[in-house]
Amino acid sequence: MSALRCASYYNATINQESNYPTLEDDIRVDIVVIGGGFTGVATALELAEKGYSVALLEANKIAWGATGRNGGQVTGSLSGDVAMTKQLRRHLGNDAEDYVWNLRWRGHDIIKNRVEKYCIDCDLKFGHIQTAYQPNHMQDLNAMFEEAQRRGMGEYMTLVEAKDMGAYLGSPLYHGGLVNRRNMHLHSVNLCLGEARAAESLGVQLFEHSAVLDIQEGERAKVMTAKGSVTANSVLIAGNAYHKLGRPKLRGMLFSASLGNCATAKLPDEIALQINPQDLAVYDCRFVLDYYRLTADKRLMFGGGTNYSGRDPKNVAAELRPSIERTFPQLKGVDIEFAWAGIAGIVINRIPQLGKISPNVFYCQGYSGHGVATSHIMAEIMAKAIDGQLHEFDLFAAMRHIRIPLNEWFGNQALALGMLYYTLRENWR
Ligand SMILES: Cc1cc2nc3c(=O)[nH]c(=O)nc-3n(C[C@H](O)[C@H](O)[C@H](O)COP(=O)(O)OP(=O)(O)OC[C@H]3O[C@@H](n4cnc5c(N)ncnc54)[C@H](O)[C@@H]3O)c2cc1C
């Protein structure tokens, strides 16, 4: 594992470590992408497939940010779907619901096709179960099941009653669940590094340890790093919650939530089979939820909790252990070998933020903790926009967002209060 990466399970199991140079020159390309997470790498790859010359600048290592720290769950639970549908009705009328429904699954197809096309080894598996933590959560799951059936996706879904949950999870916690076999789970760092290698094979120039310090706007924009610069026709800012570029336009729009994640020691086969016999990714229906799955080498990877202080939790393993042991009492005292945290970019109405800070400087950010699929969807939309196909970009750029203008600290406190409200309301339901 590189000392420059966090001590995560993913980073301990990388297939092929990246080793891109630092930018130490002044170069010219069609498009420069800032940020080497899913958003930046996937957009760079899409643009290279369209024939553009592209440079990608990453401040740390490829997949260093949220992309390299997440739960690896590829869900159809698009963040901001309800608010998005409401706003899209202004432009799409009654087609808004269908558009959002199809959008939900688009990232799955992009990832699946890309893994096949470029032979990316990232432990891709199918199958999720969303679990009812409280009895009344079954109403929500039932509604999702009915919608999937109505829209011809019933073959992927199974509604599970409480009495049958033992066939899916060895946990006493749940009141039922909804299995979705279209959703996927995977090794995020190996996916992102595989996409970076695919981009490189198409001519994308990738640079690590090359933080962008300034963007000089103009007909030909110039982005500056400590040791070099890139001049380009278009710029994409894809630094998500880890950057402060594009101020003042982007101030007060995106907020940081620190999320913890961990992986246990390898579990004996019989225990792995007992707790998760169908190898599903799992998440519950609460606002602040637990999410977990087995890794390829049969560890339990378990995430949950969140804080909006902008700082990482003090002791991720200690914070997550009670939830692990409540979920699976048979794992009491299990060794937690990896524990790490990451920052997700949260948008107040949860709708991804796509836009421009000047005619040729674009940004794309804010998937509110649901970014594995969504980043790939938005990357496709951004690459099309930079290629001049603006229809979908314009839909997102026209979305109304709440801005908290003073500074991000106030926004984070407001989000913390909001989270407290939802958590209390949930516990009183
Ligand atoms: C703990 C955790 C669990 C999660 N679990 C899931 C999950 O299971 N499923 C799901 O769908 N989503 C999940 N998410 C969310 C998902 O990981 C993110 O939405 C997604 O990875 C965002 O990708 P990104 O490329 O936009 O941002 P990031 O991956 O954060 O990448 C941004 C990159 O930009 C770089 N950068 C910043 N500033 C500069 C600069 N000035 N110059 C150059 N580079 C810069 C950073 O170093 C970083 O590498 C989770 C997030 C976290 C933190």
Mean pLDDT: 94
Q: Could you state the CATH homologous superfamily of the largest domain?
A: FAD/NAD(P)-binding domain
Per DSSP, the total helix count is 11
Q: Look at the structure and give the CATH class of the largest domain.
A: Alpha Beta
What's the architecture of the largest domain, going by CATH? 3-Layer(bba) Sandwich
Total DSSP E strands: 17
Describe the main β-sheet briefly: 9 strands, mixed
Q: What is the share of helical residues?
A: 25-40%
Number of domains: 2
Bound molecules: flavin-adenine dinucleotide
The geometry reads as: globular
Uncertain residue ranges: none
Instruction: Give the SSE string.
Output: HEHEEHHEHEEHEEEEEHEEEHEEEHHH
Q: What's the end-to-end separation, in Å?
A: 45 Å
**Structural classification:** alpha/beta
Task: Report the radius of gyration as a whole number of Å.
Answer: 21 Å
How much of the sequence lies in strands comes to 15-25%
The CATH topology of the largest domain comes to FAD/NAD(P)-binding domain
